[in-house]
Amino acid sequence: MLGIILFTQCQSPEPMPIESGVSKTLADYRKQYITDVVYALHFDIPEKVSDAITGKDTICFSLSDNQQDLQIDFREKQTNIKTISCNKQLVKYEFKNEHIIIPQRYLKKGKNTIAVDFIAGNTSLNRNDEFLYTLFVPDRARTVFPCFDQPDLKAKFRLSLTVPNSWIAVANGAEIAKQTQEKKTNYQFAITKQLPTYLFGFATGKFQTITRRHKGRKHTMYYRETDTGKVDDNTDAIFQQLFQSLDWMEEYTGIKYPFAKYDFVAIPSFQYGGMEHVGATLYRASSLFLDKNPTQNQLLRRANLIAHETSHMWFGNLVTMRWFDQVWLKEVFANYLADKITNPYFPKINHQLKFLMAHYPSSYKVDRTAGANPINQNLSNLKDAGSIYGRIIYNKSPIVMHMLEGITGSINFQKGLQEYLKTYSYGNASWEDLIAILDKSTVADLKQWSSAWVDQPGRPTISTFVTNKNGKIVDLTVTQKDNKGNNGAWNQNIQLTLGYKNGNKNFVITTNQPVVTVEKARGLPLPDFIIANGNANGYGYFQLDDKSKTYLLKNCYKIDNDLLRGVAWINLYENLYEGNVDGCSFIDAVILQLPKEQNTLVFSEMLGYLKSAYWIFLDAEQRKEVATKVENMLYAQLQQETNLGRKSSLLMSLSNIAVTPKMCRKLYHIWKNKTSIGKLELSEQRTTTMACNLALQLPEKVKQIITTQIKRISNGDRKKRLQFIAPALSADQNVRDSFFNSLSDVRNREHEPWVSTALHYLNHPTRQQEALKYLPKSLELLEEVKFTGDIFFPYDWLNACYSGHQSAEAGNITRRFLKQHPEYPENLKLKILQNADLVLRKSAK
Ligand SMILES: [Zn+2]
Predict the structure, then answer these.
(1) What are the backbone angles phi and psi of residue 545, rounded to the nearest 5°?
(2) Ligand 1 centre from 565 Cα, in Å?
(3) CA 320 to centroid of ligand 1, rounded, Å
(4) Centroid of ligand 1 to alpha carbon of 312 (angstroms)
(5) Which pTM value belongs to this model?
(6) pLDDT at residue 565 above 60?
């Protein structure tokens, strides 16, 4: 043993390969030898977007081995680096594959200091005329300044910013000093606790602020909303939800808010709903500042969003995943706990139904496709981390977490989470670390359970079969299979509900076999319908038998249990998607039953399903046939509805669906005169959406509609948005084509939400034939979109590009593209398969 150790010590180590991105090998090496990292950063920010931002970066760290050259991540041009010194000595460095290489001769064991003068890269600085904000998740800190960009090398950050005098600044740490010179102001911020690079952040620009106090702490909101009425209407609710979330998390985790301060910034057209930068969380402004008469779903979404970002302060920020392959670990807790936090504040809502509607349909959207990915994914290089994000992480993992809490029991679950947070505070931990803690308190085999639900992609198909004699059940069996032949592997408890006029019968079964017989059902009369996920806990495609299908298409509304009715509608839609129900029957079912639906969550889901069934599952001819019927039903409901949130949903759905000249004229007059409908006022946001929809249907008026609407918008940020989108709505094909071509230039893709919206309009179902030619180019651009865009953009890009396509030709284009690119990155290929699923099903294999 000793001999071997001596032998290895005498060998100089294999040099670390220099790869672009941040490879797992490099990250593991650095994690092993580097500790106690502190960054002192300074940025000098000019007013003009086109002027360069200069920076100074001093990295202090301890090194326990100096046999290797040191790789520092910097994804910019070499010319952006001015000088580098290491331990006060000027360094002759090498620059290769997005890394600054410090030769090992400059390094010593123990404390080292590296200082870099540089020009900051602009990729992740989101520079606008009057403001900028950083967004470094997952590995974008390295696009701005040299650093060790990996989540498990946590560091303290000491930041100072010089900004134009008319701007203000906010960052992770509290402001400790501010000095104003002639044209510029310098801000110094307090040193932070240990943070991963992706959570380091700041925002600066022309912002307004509102400060509120809670339990002795000051919280400031930074915003650019110019509609003061809107700000006044929403501010109380925003702060209230923040404080409620903080209190709940402190109570649940047994750990006080773990950082020095907690401010937040409302960013116009922010790429995500929110981003949990420690002490300076970013939100999409429109998700915080809601219109008058918001829908119930908008209120729920805002409460959940604030709770989600606040949960992250513990899950993700205090304890961080070791590597981005388990980024789902922070997202699952943020989402799962957000539901628990917000529930008490919506006492009239059925929370199990809310959970069902929030997570299952969205998760099925991916799991029903050939591009489904498991919750746990592989990641060999952080440059691909963006592709890990998606619906499975945000929506399937809370469902799986719900199963886990069911297995361990709520008290053990909470205790386990507390132990996990305490053990790994300000450090990193993995899913396996958590399972090891929870495993102590349960007899169930959590590892085996995890290997099916966390490591496998997709969902099982669960079907029921009944035989009868003289109207009495002889055999009721439940089968479970998936398209990979894992029949019986998806172990879960489901509740079979047999529907009868005078009371339903329920049977809980465990689906741990390919076929399970429900012995207790023998001898019962044949039911009107069977729903195999009756208590809303089952996960899968629940294939309806013919009798149940026929019954539910006409009679869902007769089910008086809201939760079961919600399940029935999800099942009907999934059966539509899988070809077991046809589009016209589904639309007829909604026309018949929507007017009878009292529960707002089910009502909203039905409206969403109506829109997608109408545009995606009907061809143009069928649409023509049902258009008047659908429009009239929605219009009649719109007039009658007294709840303003529901009224608003009806108006927006009608505006989305209307195609007949008669209804378009009606809507045009409502839009033009900003006519209130009952007590529902036409807010700017509503008239903007209406204007866009009308522009698609009334090509002769498009110019006038868009010009009028742009004039009506007083807020500069929102005016720019509509100006950007306008060419995508044009009646002139040449204008649309040249707009599409302009997206090849990364500068025109900077505002990602604007681009996604514009692409939706370009590829609108009514224009899908002309838009087919955009598909090959959209696919060609995808890798670049991933490289230059933020984490959700590749999915959103594809989603928008495929949103209006129904043709086999669109599927064939996709197949051809994949065939021509056999080496295409797997995770992007999955995103294509997810979004092209419907057209791929239609095209020839
Ligand atoms: Zn999150």
Answers:
(1) -75, 165
(2) 30
(3) 12
(4) 7
(5) 0.90
(6) yes
